[in-house]
Amino acid sequence: MKLQSNLYTVLSACRQTGVCTIHLIEDCMIYQAHFPGNPITPGACIIQIAQELYEQLCGHSVEILEVKNAKFLKTITPSPDNRYHYSFSNISADSDNDRMQVVVSDDDSSTSEAAEPISIYAKFSLVCKSR
């Protein structure tokens, strides 16, 4: 099952910067099970969102072969005004696989000189192959 339009919507996606911004859909059935009254985005969903966003950026379907060094540092929760950035970096492709680092952080568009640093919610590396 694709998570886009069910769990999240894409607010923006920039191939040049490798950054996608999403909004989580609060009334998604996943949040009714994980956990009612205190919804938390499951780690597997965080990784699948990365796969779907990368497919949008690269323009073709991919299959995840390996997830490396996955660190979930803060809970990712839906709210009326939530925004999360998925940043893809160090993307390298050989004849068989694409390798990348993914960082999920909060929206920093409203930061000012006195603002707090960006919060990082998750970071991990993916190895994918084209389908």
Summarize the entry for a quick read:
By secondary structure, this protein is of the alpha+beta class. The chain has 2 helices and 6 strands.
Annotation keywords:
16% helix, globular, 6-stranded antiparallel β-sheet, 42% strand, 2 helices, alpha+beta, 131 residues
Give me the secondary-structure topology.
Blueprint: E1 8-14, E2 19-24, H1 29-33, H2 43-58, E3 62-72, E4 84-93, E5 97-106, E6 120-130
Antiparallel strand pairs: 1-2, 2-4, 3-6, 4-5, 5-6
Would you kindly provide a written description of the structure presented here, covering whatever features stand out?
It is a single chain. The protein is an alpha+beta fold and 131 residues long. It has helices at residues 29-33, 43-58; strands at 8-14, 19-24, 62-72, 84-93, 97-106, 120-130. The radius of gyration is 15 Å and the shape is globular.
